[in-house]
Here is the input.
Amino acid sequence: MSRSPSSFDSTASAWIETQRSVDRSPNTLYTYLCALANLRQFLARRQIRNVRLVTFNHLSAWQAHLWKTGCKVATLQMFTLIVRRWFAWQVSTGRLFQSPARTLQPPRVTRPIVRCPCEKDMLRLLRSIKGRGRFALRDRAILETAYATGARLAELAALDLASLDLNGRCVRLYGKGQRERMVPLTRIAVRTLRAYLHRARPRFVQTALGQTALFVGSRGGQRMMTAAFTAVIRKHAKKVGLILTMHDIRRAFATHLLAGGAHPAVVRELLGHRDYTHLHHYLKLHPESAINALRNSRIFQ
Here is the structure.
């Protein structure tokens, strides 16, 4: 038996397909699916399988259920926004006359100011890797590239040899939705990458001569996974008394550029963001750069 066009499953599937067609990342699509699956399960227990029967009271009860079962506030807020977006899409496509979620309010989340290493901390980290062994050369190249580009963890792990243009001092990154951007490299990043490519990488890939990955590990010269990058950063950060992740280095990249007078529009492009929502958060991390940005850019006026 075919599913009704107004059934929960068919409507949810149709919306997910539209989101997939606009290049939402796999992680984003997974979050959408989780939110809708959670709501579907809640409504099914009340024998509601047709989206036209869903009311505001049902959705409010769903929010209360999530809260009582220990759902984090940030997750509850995200799930609420996803469900609101889904119902709004149903209205825009003529599936519903009115959205029962139009007045559904997500809980307010007070986001703490997250850690961001200062420039001195980053210099201590980068200078802590000594020696000319293959691991030292590789790890130094990883950290210099991360700080020079502000790349996401997955973007760094996905880098291939063809992504580099050392003569032009830039690297090609593929962000969310496979959006491509070219990011310049610092001179020291180029220097450390050349040293890694000439003196270290060949020793890693002796048994994997066709390997195209830029950063490889000691197990057969295979591409390093994201967990391996995290371990490298944690190891060297611990030596200098820091607790860092790749995203902390990305924050440092953005805030230090803004502090140095970089235009917010340029920083947004380098980070690979579509809008300025996340940039406001970086500006909070560096109040003086926020003041300069507000003075010099109409974007934030």
In short: Confidence is low (pLDDT under 50) at residues 287-301. The two ends are 56 Å apart (CA to CA). The longest strand covers residues 170-174.
